């Protein structure tokens, strides 16, 4: 398991063109939600295309601990026999969410309005991350939380026996916080209202509606106002999980910077609350096209085609777009290093509280590879070395962060000298087939140091 065993150094050496089809795994955000809402419905939810990465497998285990029957039928097909809203049983042991902030925060929300107590923990990365952003609104429902200093895991949540509905304005742009409040609101009587000033990924809202909850969304001067009517009976669903745009980002960005590449990434979820990276890349001049646009499982989907793009220029990424590409800034910074001019990324303070401080992790590794990076508390900029002109040749730390590890491996594919990451094991949390899939396209990734 990532972060629990011996570190796995991985080295990516400069490679020839990346060519072919990249079938990336299922969407992580949607996979977590499918398991959790399946567990809160009455009857059997069937899921295909589930991401079988460690983060989601930890959520599957957690749903079993709360009393749902979760069955792996093989090949991404799963079923969940739910216990119904308010039907969670008290787990007999500590819930270990591994590396997953989404898993722990959504599950805390889902159990916080039931009269049960649960203790949560995670790996060294997750146990450093802030949980007060979730436990503060859960306290308004009547739940209590006791954790380590700074609101950190391990943490015990005592669910509210008599929950009250809540009206809550989310203070940071976070789909995890929004979703935790909505999931808690499911077992509160009356209407729970969540207001977000900036729109964040809306998979929870879409899926709650799909499961039969009464939910409305209004755009007002206050922001996006989401109103959920509590204590519905959720009806089980058949869910086809689209492929993850955040995972697609890696083969797409690699193809843009490795000369001669032409990669097709089929069936990618292109929900507008997730697609900011692709818009940004196109504005930079990337040869990136959407083919065969369609709708699958209530989400817009298309095939992405990315070709080598030697004429990309740095841009100022609009801060209003940050939430729709929050997980993609690390790999964007790698593309920016291979463009021309400076790419400026503002309004991205949230990057400092992800699986790692992603601004610090990328800035340190990029500088070690010869790239010019500047940073402040909520912004950073990358000044391009130019296509093919990134020196590379360094060992970069992944800080238990899958996206940092994959970003540096992509950097190595187009650098002048190999790039090593000190530990590639976290990649298994979200993209367990990354190494083999990139190898099939033509990447040169080996285990060990250069
Ligand atoms: C996620 C929301 C984002 C994102 C994370 C997945 C989700 O976090 O970074 O990888 O599935 O809701 P925040 O909501 O905290 O920004």
What topology does this entry show?
Elements: E1 10-13, E2 19-21, H1 28-39, E3 42-48, H2 54-65, E4 69-74, E5 77-83, E6 95-96, H3 101-111, E7 117-121, H4 132-141, E8 144-148, E9 152-158, E10 167-170, H5 175-185, E11 191-196, H6 203-210, E12 215-220, E13 223-229, E14 238-240, H7 245-257, E15 262-269, H8 276-284, E16 287-296, E17 299-307, E18 316-317, H9 329-337, E19 342-346, H10 358-368, E20 372-376, E21 379-383, E22 395-396, H11 402-414, E23 419-421, H12 434-441, E24 444-447
Parallel strand pairs: 2-15, 3-14, 6-7, 10-11, 18-19, 22-23
Antiparallel strand pairs: 1-23, 1-24, 3-5, 4-5, 7-9, 8-9, 11-13, 12-13, 15-17, 16-17, 19-21, 20-21
Shikimate-3-phosphate (S3P) binds next to α5.
Task: List the main descriptive attributes of the protein structure presented here.
450 residues; UDP-n-acetylglucosamine1-carboxyvinyl-transferase, Chain; 2 domains; four-stranded mixed beta sheet; 12 helices; 28% helix; binds shikimate-3-phosphate; transferase; aromatic amino acid biosynthesis; cytoplasm; 3-phosphoshikimate 1-carboxyvinyltransferase activity; amino-acid biosynthesis
């Amino acid at each position: 398991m990532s972060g629990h065993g011996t570190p796995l150094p991985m080295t990516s050496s400069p490679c020839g063109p990346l060519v072919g089809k990249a079938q990336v795994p299922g969407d992580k955000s949607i996979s977590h939600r499918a398991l959790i809402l399946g567990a809160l419905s009455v009857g059997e939810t069937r899921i295909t295309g589930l991401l079988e990465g460690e983060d989601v497998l930890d959520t599957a285990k957690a749903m079993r601990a709360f009393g749902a029957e979760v069955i792996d039928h093989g090949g991404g097909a799963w079923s969940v026999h739910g216990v119904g809203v308010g039907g969670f049983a008290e787990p007999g042991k500590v819930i270990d969410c591994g590396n997953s902030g989404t898993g722990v925060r959504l599950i805390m929300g889902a159990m916080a309005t039931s009269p049960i107590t649960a203790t949560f923990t995670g790996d060294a990365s997750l146990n450093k991350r802030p949980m007060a952003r979730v436990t503060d609104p859960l306290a308004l429902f009547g739940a209590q939380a006791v954790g380590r200093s700074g609101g950190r895991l391990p943490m015990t949540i005592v669910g509210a026996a008599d929950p009250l509905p809540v009206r809550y304005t989310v203070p940071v742009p976070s789909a995890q916080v929004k979703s935790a409040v909505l999931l808690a609101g499911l077992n509160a009587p009356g209407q729970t209202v969540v207001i977000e000033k900036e729109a964040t990924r809306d998979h929870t809202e879409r899926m709650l509606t799909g499961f039969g909850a009464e939910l409305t969304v209004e755009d007002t001067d206050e922001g996006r106002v989401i109103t959920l009517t509590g204590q519905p009976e959720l009806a089980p669903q058949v869910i086809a999980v689209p492929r993850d745009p955040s995972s697609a980002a890696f083969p797409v960005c690699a193809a843009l910077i490795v000369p001669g590449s032409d990669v097709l990434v089929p069936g990618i979820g292109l929900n507008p609350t997730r697609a900011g990276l692709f818009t940004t890349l196109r504005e930079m001049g990337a040869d990136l096209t959407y083919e065969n646009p369609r709708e699958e499982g209530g989400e817009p989907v298309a095939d992405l085609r990315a070709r080598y793009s030697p004429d990309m220029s740095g841009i100022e990424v609009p801060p209003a777009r940050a939430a729709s590409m929050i997980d993609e800034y690390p790999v964007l910074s790698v593309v920016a290093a291979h463009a021309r001019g400076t790419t400026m990324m503002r309004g991205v303070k949230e990057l400092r509280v992800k699986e790692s401080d992603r601004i610090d992790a990328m800035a340190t590794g990029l500088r070690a590879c010869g790239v010019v990076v500047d940073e402040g508390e909520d912004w950073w900029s990358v000044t391009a070395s130019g296509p093919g002109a990134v020196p590379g040749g360094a060992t970069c730390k992944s800080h238990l962060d899958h996206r940092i590890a994959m970003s540096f491996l992509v950097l190595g594919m187009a650098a002048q000298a190999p790039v090593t990451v000190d530990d590639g094991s976290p990649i298994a949390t979200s993209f367990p087939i990354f190494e083999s899939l990139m190898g099939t396209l033509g990447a040169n990734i080996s285990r060990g140091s250069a």
